[in-house]
Amino acid sequence: LLLNFQIVPMPFNNITNFILVLGTAHICAAFVPRESLSFSKGRTTGFKEKNGHLFSSSLYADDSISISHLDNTEPGSIQKASDFMTDNFWLPNEDGKHENKNYETLSASVHDDLLDRYGERMKQGKLDSGILQAHTIGNPSELAGLVGIDVAVLDSQRNVIFNREKSDSLLTNAVASLGPKDRKRYMRSSAQKIATKLLPPELSAVVVLSNLAVSTSLRRMRIGAKLCTEAELFASVKGWGFTEIYLKVESENVPAKTLYERLGYEERWVENNAIALRADLDSGEFIEKIKDTTVMSKFL
What we know:
300 residues, alpha+beta, 11-stranded antiparallel beta sheet, 7 helices, globular, disordered N terminus
C-alpha cells in the first residue's frame, strides 16, 4: 500500500524534481548539527564524525531497519543511489531491463541529475540538499530505500514551488542586488535567511522531500513510512524548526492519497495540468505526461 506512489512518479519538470514533502524552513544538506539532534521513541541512534560534520543514523528495533544520511563524499555513493532509483523508482516493473540497450542511457540521466542535486556540485548554489537512506540490518551493504531532501522557494500567493534552477536564481539575484558590504554579509547565508530578509513576503524557502523509493523486494515492511517519519522529525521543531509539511501527489493516485490521509495530511489545493515524467525503456527517454496534482499538508 505504501509503495503505490513509487511506481507512479510525481509531477514535475526534471528527473529528480518530484516533490513529496516540503516544509517552511532551512535544512542542512547531508549532516545534522549537534545542537539540533532529537529522535523519537522506538529507535536508537548513532553518529560519526567526518569533515567536521556529524552524520546521523537511526535504528528501528521492530524490524531492524536503519536510516542514515548518505555521505556524498564516499566514492560511488551517488552512483549506488542512482542505480537504486533507476531500478526501484523509474523502472520497478520492467522485466529484462538490464539487458535492454536503453537501460544504461536512462540510468546515466538519473545519475547526472542526482550528482547535480546531491553530489559535490550542489555546494556551488544557494540550495542545500541531501539523501536519507534505509538499510536492513541483515543486508547493510544494500539499499532498502531512500528519499531526497532539497531546499526550494515557495510562492504562497500563487501556490507554486519553483524548480531548483528558478529557486537558486531568485536567491542569487537577491544577494547580487545588494551593495558590496551587504552582499558579502549574505554571500554564505542559508536559503531561509536570504528568502526571509531579501525576498518579497509571499516567497519563502522550503525544504522538499523527493524521490521516495523502496526496494521492490522489501515492500510492506513500512520502510517508506519510516523514511517519511525520520524526515518529518528532522523538519519539525525537534530538529530544524518546521511547523508544517506539504506533499504533492498525482490526483488520480487514490491509494497514495489515502495513505497520506492516514498519515495526517489534508488537501490544500490542486495544480491542474502539471507535468509528470515517465521513464520509457523503449526509447531510452523520459516522457512528459499531463497530470493534475494534489497538494496536501500536515502540521507537525
